[in-house]
Write a structure and sequence with these properties.
The chain is an alpha/beta fold. The protein has helices at residues 2-5, 18-30, 48-58, 74-95, 117-128, 162-176, 184-192, 196-207, 215-219, 228-239, 243-252, 257-271, 275-298, 304-317, 333-338, 342-359, 363-380, 385-392, 396-403; strands at residues 37-41, 61-67, 99-105, 133-137, 152-156, 179-180, 212-213. α5 (117-128) links the parallel β3 (99-105) and β4. Bound molecules: adenosine-5'-triphosphate (ATP) and magnesium ion (MG).
Length: 404
Amino acid sequence: MWTEKYRPKSICEIIGNEEAKVAIVKWLKNWVPGNEGFLLWGPPGTGKTSLVQAAAHDFQYQLIEMNASDVRTEKQISRVMGPASIEGSLDKAFYGYRGLLLFVDEIDGIFGREDHGGMAAIQKILEVTRVPIILAANSTQREALQPLIHCCQVVRFQRVRPPVLLALLKNICRLEGINAEEGALEMITEMSQGDVRSAINDLQSTSSGAVTLRRENIAGLFARDRPANISETLNSIFAAQTLREAKKVIDESDMDYESIYQALHDNLPFRFRDPEALATAYDYLSKADICFGEIKKTQDWHLLSYALELMVSGIVLAKDSAKENNHFHFPHGRFVMLGRSRATRSLLDELAQKIGFRYHVSKRTATEDYLNVVKVIMLNHPEQKPKISEQLSFSDEAQSYLEG
Ligand SMILES: Nc1ncnc2c1ncn2[C@@H]1O[C@H](COP(=O)(O)OP(=O)(O)OP(=O)(O)O)[C@@H](O)[C@H]1O
Ligand SMILES: [Mg+2]
């Protein structure tokens, strides 16, 4: 497997998630008994496990890994983690390592189980441990991590951005002697939605045995129905009659709230034709965004419930004017952009620059967040086109691209 062959050995080989890398280094360097644990959580395939392994390697810790889904009950956890966390210092001299580093992966295997004892056992061990402990969760719901945030430094892992991922794929192609046709790697990057593992797997499966990787080889992968789950989630949110119902959809969805937020953000203009309704929905979404920001800053996760409520409030309130349309648009504009031709890219670049200038946002934000909205407004309200074009001083070419 190329994912194993190219698993990063050192922290500097991990792509993306710069903040998480800095945080783990600081935490590990300064760790003394009595300090809190370290909890990494985020979407699959983004390098959480790899980062912990690389950190152990770089700082010469002997890593003791366990998977929480294998040891669930209080007894099992205490039996496995207990001795390692207490006796770690004895092993230090013996192995020539700086010490032991305990890593409990997939801790979400314990969440929501009937045996709540498992979580309590981990909390207790975190309090008394003589060795640093790192936990990783592939969790979609931040709320589930609540019991651990008081005894851990919590760090969120993000999906890896397309340009960084693309560079990694190019490098693997170079090392494997594969000549990738222009656009082929961009397609893989686009589909992976920031999941490095699935991007590498897709690269391996599409290029196996071939020297040249063509775009046609990739096309077959598109048939895979990635957004099914998010589509279902979005449909249920739009169908909810009450706020409570909409909130329940989020709680029960497999998708993490950031993905739901992003998907709502991208799809609102397709759902609401009435500008007032659209504005209401976006207004609440932006309040939710502020709330998410506040949570990130203060780590006060009690606010999450309010943030999620805000995220869907506008949709429930504006529901009456929702279009009868359950077709959603994926992936987000940011991923689609990469696959386009060079000419189109330079047009998009112009649009992003002008939108960014007018609304005082970065080009990236303009591309990711604004461009789609402008395009859909022009599509739904042709009468607004001249006004928008004038405000943003688009060239004729850019305008006709948007209309197309
Ligand atoms: N940030 C990254 N930089 C380089 N390679 C990565 C990165 N993330 C993932 N990979 C590749 O994908 C493989 C799987 O990554 P890893 O197991 O670290 O992901 P994870 O975040 O722990 O996923 P999960 O949530 O499913 O446990 C690695 O072996 C490596 O090849
Ligand atoms: Mg992992």
